[in-house]
Amino acid sequence: TSAGPMIWGIPLKYLSLVTLAVQNSALTLIMHYSRVSTPPSRAYSPATAVLVNEMLKGSISLFIALWRIDLPSPDGQASGSLLGRVKRLGGDVFSQDCWKLSIPAILYVIQNNLQFVAVSNLQAATFQVSYQMKILTTAGFSVLLLRKKLTSPQWFALLFLAIGVAVVQIQTGAVRVVRDGVPLEDTHTMNALKGFIAVVIACLTSGLAGVYFEMVLKNSQTDLWVRNVQLSLFSLLPALAPVFYLYASDPQEGWVSALFRNFGGWAWATVLVQVFGGLLTALVIKYSDNILKGFATSLSIVISFMASVALFDFQITLTFVTGSLIVVFATWLYNHQPKRTDFAWALGWAE
Ligand code: C5P
């Protein structure tokens, strides 16, 4: 089989998986810091962050879609002028089946809002590990909706992955964001139960939305970037709803200043890293699948911890090494295709 598109001689499939792992670790730390580093009275609005995220992602996807449509179509018909391209893209975006994207769009908006609730109420590491339950919800929905067949070793691999992540967590549970010698979590009110419920629902919506997006993408010829534009368009309405609520609660203030109150550098950094992650996620779903995406992000836990060792002088412990090895083993087990010949050879049937 072909390796798919390449960048600098590396298959885009692997490049996007590795980049996603790094992006995931960065996002958890930046987002957590952006939430807990200020008292609640000076917090920025997550609803604004989700809305800006969708608008940026949609605009970037729109430009890419427009640029791609310039390439001659398979039937050799060139797309011509800018107006011609815009018209053709308009037809693609508002196609008959565009409504299908409304389902993952709503689910992703719910997930993205809940992620803020979770990250504000749990420690960074606790959040990161409980968010890995996505791996199991995603596998479940892939089997149900995509009729994906997993072999028994692959089911075991998923189980090992969950265990490995939990073991690494025992270690990283000690990682806290500290300023002036005081853990920021102690100065910020957190509600662990609220955080945990948010994370559980976010895992369910994440699994369902991802698999649904994969199903729509892989069951049609429509370009990924057109699908992304459709996704962002359908996200706007649910993303705007909490923003209106925010504005209605204080109509004296101008709406722009109400939306962007306390929206500082860390909030923008969070949104930009999220936009990058959303685009990467789309690539990963196209060139790999949602289950492999889960493995990539579980490696991000290992990356986060390594970064903490380098940056904050943490000690590597046996627990951490054990957990990481289980994660790596699970990844290998999931991707290892037992060949018939292995089996035949083991039984002495091969020549
Ligand atoms: O939890 P998970 O890793 O599935 O999160 C996916 C993230 O990627 C969500 O924030 C979602 O908004 C984003 N996404 C996207 N475009 C896609 C698929 C997912 O922006 N086509």
Distinctive features:
single chain; about 350 residues; mainly alpha; two-stranded antiparallel sheet; two-stranded antiparallel ribbon; 15 helices; about 70% helix; about 0% strand; binds cytidine-5'-monophosphate
Topology (elements, then pairings):
Layout: E1 6-7, E2 10-11, H1 12-36, H2 46-69, H3 82-93, H4 102-121, H5 124-130, H6 134-145, H7 152-172, E3 178-179, E4 182-183, H8 184-187, H9 192-218, H10 224-248, H11 255-259, H12 265-287, H13 290-312, H14 318-335, H15 340-346
Helix pairs in contact: 1-12, 1-13, 2-10, 2-12, 4-9, 4-10, 5-7, 6-9, 6-13, 7-13, 7-14, 13-14
Subcellular location: Membrane
Protein name: Nucleotide-sugar transporter-domain-containing protein
Main location: membrane
Could you give a short description of this structure?
With 351 residues, this protein is an all-alpha fold. 72% of the residues lie in helices and 2% in strands. The strands form two sheets. A two-stranded antiparallel sheet has the order 1-2. The protein has a two-stranded antiparallel ribbon with strand order 3-4.
